[in-house]
Specification:
single chain, Double Stranded RNA Binding Domain, 2 domains, globular
């Protein structure tokens, strides 16, 4: 077979080809190489089969790597292997006949079920969509989930123009016995647009002495890669970095990859998409870098979509199909723009959490009709009205 290697140079210069430090892939097939701009390099191998995926895992084990985690979603296979210096993520997608091998320096690895110790204190697991003020902006979203031990998972946080950090903190303490210090076990930042992360920056300035934040979760493209979108919001990228530096050293930083599973108290998070999927693709829309998680909490499965748009949703549909099933979905990109509506067909949710202002209802009329009329979604919760709390 003639072997071709395509090196995409539209990203900043790769500091080190980490793939030269791991065993060669077992099938000498056509591949492309990408630098993801966050310390990771990725190679995509084409015309592969499931046996190629497993054969390469055996090669890594023989070279001294330990399997940290394995997962399967909708026929796709995922494995993370480590050797104390490098982490290797191996992914197989049957619908593309591709194996992807991502290498990065040793990082904070997903919490495995065997390491997930906690005490059930009898708190009722809940998901709360916090009301957003949309008087001067038509986007923003903030969610807080309470776990059985009283700790919380926060998703984004929204803007900071109208006291969103105060709102979030007040919500957390309202769910606990008086005087108890809130614990945020997992704070997910879906992507670095201001309507999703400005609250996070304000919160870091004002409330870090009043809460314990155990982990921050994000996978943003690099600054140079983000600049290529031409978006005027690029300054938000460095502001996030500055905010993260304010957190204590005890706060873990997780960079999720597709297929990763996190066990956080009585919740499970599966990563279904992240910016890794744009390797070698044009970086024209920061929304598509949104990390997508499916959360299982109690009896409820919630799909957290962030602002995932067309490229993300058009990967998820053929990759997972009806394995995308969820009881509740957070509507992607506020219902705006170009997410492929078919992704909701495969989720078949009963409820939708919708972070959108009332004055944009005409914009989302078509999607509302599709969800309720075609898919039978029973309840749409709009964030411009009030807080909504759902039991899990």
């Amino acid at each position: 077979m003639i072997k071709f290697e395509f090196i995409h140079t539209d990203h900043e210069k790769e500091p080190e080809n980490l793939h030269e430090r791991i065993p060669a892939f077992t099938n000498d097939v056509t591949h492309s190489r990408h630098y993801l701009g966050n310390g990771s390099t990725e190679r995509t191998y084409w015309c592969c089969h499931e046996e190629d995926f497993y054969a390469y895992i055996e090669v890594l084990i023989a070279a001294g790597y330990e399997v940290w985690q394995e997962n399967s979603i909708g026929g796709n296979r995922f494995a993370t292997l480590v050797n104390g210096e490098l982490d290797v993520h191996v992914e197989w997608y049957p619908f593309m006949s591709q194996v992807k091998v991502l290498v990065e320096p040793q990082s904070t690895l997903p919490v495995r079920e065997s390491e997930n110790s906690y005490t059930d204190r009898g708190f009722k697991p809940t998901v709360t969509q916090l009301r957003s003020e949309y008087s001067d902006v038509d986007c923003g979203m903030s969610y807080a989930c309470q776990l059985c031990d009283g700790s919380f998972v926060v998703i984004d946080g929204g803007m900071s123009n109208h006291g969103e950090a105060d709102q979030l903190y007040n919500h957390l303490i309202s769910k606990l016995p008086e005087g108890e210090k809130p614990v945020i076990a997992f704070w997910i930042l879906t992507h670095h647009h201001p309507d999703h992360v400005n609250c996070f920056k304000d919160f870091a300035d004002r409330y870090l002495d009043k809460v314990d934040v155990e982990a921050l979760v994000y996978n943003n493209p690099s600054y140079d890669k983000s600049k290529r979108t031409g978006e005027y919001l690029i300054g938000e990228y460095t502001l996030i970095e500055q905010a993260v530096e304010k957190f204590p050293e005890s706060t873990k930083i997780y960079m999720p990859h597709t297929g990763d599973v996190y066990h956080i108290r009585n919740a499970v998070f599966e990563c279904l998409w992240c910016q890794d999927g744009l390797a070698g693709d044009s970086m024209d829309n920061t929304n598509n870098t949104s990390v997508v998680f499916r959360m299982t909490l109690g009896k409820r499965k919630v799909m957290w979509m962030g602002d995932a748009s067309r490229k993300a949703t058009r990967f998820m549909i053929p990759a997972y199909g009806f394995e995308l099933a969820a009881d509740t979905v957070q509507i992607a990109h506020h219902g705006y723009g170009d997410p492929d509506w078919a992704v909701y067909y495969y989720m078949r949710p009963k409820e939708a959490l919708w972070p959108v202002p009332e004055y944009r209802t005409a914009t989302i009329e078509g999607l509302s009709a599709y969800l309720v009329g075609k898919l039978g979604v029973k309840t749409l919760y709009f964030s411009h009205t009030r807080d909504y709390t759902l039991d899990c």
